[in-house]
Design brief:
single chain, 8 helices, 174 residues, 0% strand, mainly alpha
């Protein structure tokens, strides 16, 4: 509910600024990629992360989300043909986060809490969504200006969150 409100308000503000500056929205395949970035990329990441927070301890979910720099480094080499330099090697080293998570949860705890394993899976999926989002945004950013690009992504994410709120009903923190 809060994401739906936040992103809907942001989309209205962004569209207003875009129109005030006389900038057009992207068209064609660029528009399609940006809609997918907002709906599947940002929407998928947020849904996975908040699901992880319901099923697993917040500290572990957050730790696993930060696998994304290592995932981005690998994806950038594979899809953007970037070189693996020292900075990217450090990001890959951060993938050692898993070595911290494993001992923290222990196998016996997983057997007693099957939702924990699902929560950790959602946290890793969240990192994956975020990594793919960053790579695709970097690629499409070469074809779209920042403000129109951000506007479409935010409006698309807002649409996903509004639909989710309409399906599940409003849910407030508490």
């Amino acid at each position: 509910t809060l994401l739906a409100l936040r992103f809907s308000l942001a989309a209205v503000v962004m569209l207003t600024v875009l129109r005030a500056r006389g900038l057009p929205l992207p068209r064609g395949s660029t528009l399609g990629v940006l809609i997918a970035l907002g709906a599947a990329g940002y929407g998928g990441q947020a849904i996975c992360y908040f699901t992880a927070l319901k099923l697993a301890p917040a500290g572990l979910a957050a730790l696993l989300l930060y696998l994304h720099p290592a995932l981005v480094a690998v994806l950038a080499v594979a899809f953007l043909h970037e070189r693996l330099n020292a900075t990217k090697l450090v990001a890959l080293a951060l993938a050692g986060t898993v070595l911290t998570v494993g001992p923290a949860i222990g196998g016996d705890k997983l057997a007693l809490a099957p939702d924990l394993l699902a929560g950790l899976g959602f946290a890793v999926a969240s990192a994956g969504f975020y990594a793919v989002y960053i790579i695709v945004a970097s690629w499409v950013g070469r074809r779209a200006d920042a403000l129109p690009m951000s506007t479409v992504v935010i409006a698309s994410a807002a649409t996903v969150f509004v639909i989710a709120t309409l399906i599940r009903g409003p849910q407030w923190p508490g």
